[in-house]
Amino acid sequence: MNRDGQETRQHALAAREFLEAADREFAMGDKLQGSEKLWGAACQAVIAIAQQRGWPHNSHSAMKDSVTRLAKEHDDPALQAGYAVAEKLHANFYHGFMEDYQLIVDSALVRRFVERALDLAA
Fold this sequence. Notes:
- By secondary structure, the protein is mainly alpha-helical.
- It has helices at residues 3-27, 31-53, 60-73, 77-95, 100-121.
- It is globular and about 40 Å long.
């Protein structure tokens, strides 16, 4: 396997590990760390895709552009919506503004985003 393929797999694995870490954080009652781990999972999934396709991914803006490109490529606006929810969870890490019911719903949306993105990177 070439280096890029290995790196793509490493980022995909990291995305899944962040999902598991989010579960642990939420189970321990740490909503801020759980939120940030979901953001990390989304980012790692985007990096895997961008790296695989040779797209820039070295900034927040570049990663958002990658999600937009991917959504257009697959005619799947839910990808952009899922990433936007991940961004909201990232903001929650800093400001703690989300209620429990929001975390439950939004966690599921980010998980779907990550799984869909990783399916497309496979």
